[in-house]
Amino acid sequence: MGIMDHRLLKIVACPVCNGKLYYKKERQELICKFDALAYPLRKGIPVLIESEARVITLDEIKS
Fold it and tell me: 1 pLDDT exceeds 50?
């Protein structure tokens, strides 16, 4: 799969802060700029579990 349904982005939110998530196609992740977390997609399904997220750098947030 590997493709994010952009309609889904309108309804999903960061489980930590309830903020907007941004799709990062290159890494197949959903990014929360507020918490600097990247949530993985597995078979096109977002894994919105804080313990599964990775911390991202300021440079990754800006790009």
Answer: no
